[in-house]
Amino acid sequence: MKGILFTFALLSPIIGGLIYGLERKFKARMQNRQGPPILQPFYDFFKLTDKRALQVHSFHSLMGIAFFVAAWFAVFALLIGPNILIAIFLHVLALLFFTAGGFSVKSPYSVMGALRELAHILAAEPILVFAAIALYLSTGSWNIEGILTSNTVPILQMPLLFCALVLTVPILLKRSPFDISEAHQEIIGGAEIEYSGLFYEAVYTAKWLEYIFIGVIVFLFGGSNYLLGALLVAATFLFVWLLDNATTRLTIHYMMKFAWGILLPLAAFNIFWVAIWR
Amino acid sequence: MFGFFKKFRKKSPWILHYNTGSCNGCDIEIMACLGPKYDLERFGIINKGNPKQADILLVTGPVTKRARARLLRLYMQMPEPKVVVAVGACACTGGVFRHMYNVENGIDRFIPVDVYIPGCAARPENIIEGIKKAIEIWERKQKEKVEVPKVLKEIPDVETLDRREIISKLEEKYSERLVIEEDEK
Ligand code: SF4
């Protein structure tokens, strides 16, 4: 088990890239376009290696690389670490590096994108923490191996919380209707705007790791039933891609109201209900 | 080593589209190329909208006097290797706006242009063909060589200047900040 999880964590940038390629293909097919090849993210990756890198200043570039390293570290902590809560906090740390980079340059789009990124963290991470608590409540373990070998199926006890988690995925992955911090053609990528060449490559790859991170958390809701877990992951991603194609960007206030007014009470209600019922 | 990465250029060209005061006819055609009917994304092309990450600069319009410094600024912000495509009669020569008091008759007075796409408006098929030509030219370019905007051609030894010096010369000429705080790597 440990060996498989370790290899998965090691290969996670590649698998994340494949998921991103699939996403682009699927979204193109939904719009009746042919779409790029599935390996397109890797072509982009290799091309960016051969571009001249224009640094704004070294701290900014360092934060781009730190984002990638910390995001990968969070995936490792999730897959082979002792506690999934730690992985969630490391994930916040990775996003904070990214925001620090965004704040460190004078470009207004970058600063605005970093501010919005903070709002994303505020909206999405509490629900991830609740998801970890829910996994503990229904399986009795904070550890990924314990969850994967327990004989309960968390989604059966936590249906409302799972719905809240699925609706958090667009906030985490910055997909429409919650693509507020990236907002292509409005603030043109937000905090990633000033990166170029190799440094943009780091940020670009770090975003693939987000798929793995959220995908694994969704997978855990299948418990020891791996087929159910895989189905949940596929259904979640398909739903998010469809939602991305079908909706337009909402405002930041709406996102906060939605996350703290609807998703969080939903998740909390589910947790209290299960905790009291047992 | 770098020959290996060069092969992937033609698979993932990212474009930056800038309108220097065109009538929007050509812009609509570029958008049509990216839409479902012509679907440029099947070649890996996306409209990045960000000069620091773009490879191909698509320019439409005759360059109004207000747009010229912005055009130079976008051009200098793009990292090498890069190519420039002039889309439509306006961007090539000034088109219907030629010799008006507020325009500069085409972009090639300011920046080196690699591909000219004729037509008013340029047809999507032409634009796709032009981008294909641009990619062929782009594959031969070096990332070390800095191309000098044509407005600086009269300065002696302009080819030996580095990026920084070119930017400061341009800022002198137009008395405007072009690129804010940037080191070179
Ligand atoms: S070439 Fe014609 S269609 Fe294109 S911007 Fe100029 S006037 Fe408009």
Automatic annotation (TrEMBL), chain A:
Its main location: membrane. GO terms for cellular component: plasma membrane. It is found in: Membrane. InterPro entries: ComplexI_Subunit1 (IPR052561), NADH_UbQ_OxRdtase_su1/FPO (IPR001694). It is a multi-pass membrane protein. The chain crosses the membrane at residues 6-23, 61-80, 86-105, 117-136, 156-173, 211-243, 258-277. Keywords: Membrane, Transmembrane, Transmembrane helix. This is NADH-quinone oxidoreductase subunit H. It comes from Aquifex aeolicus.
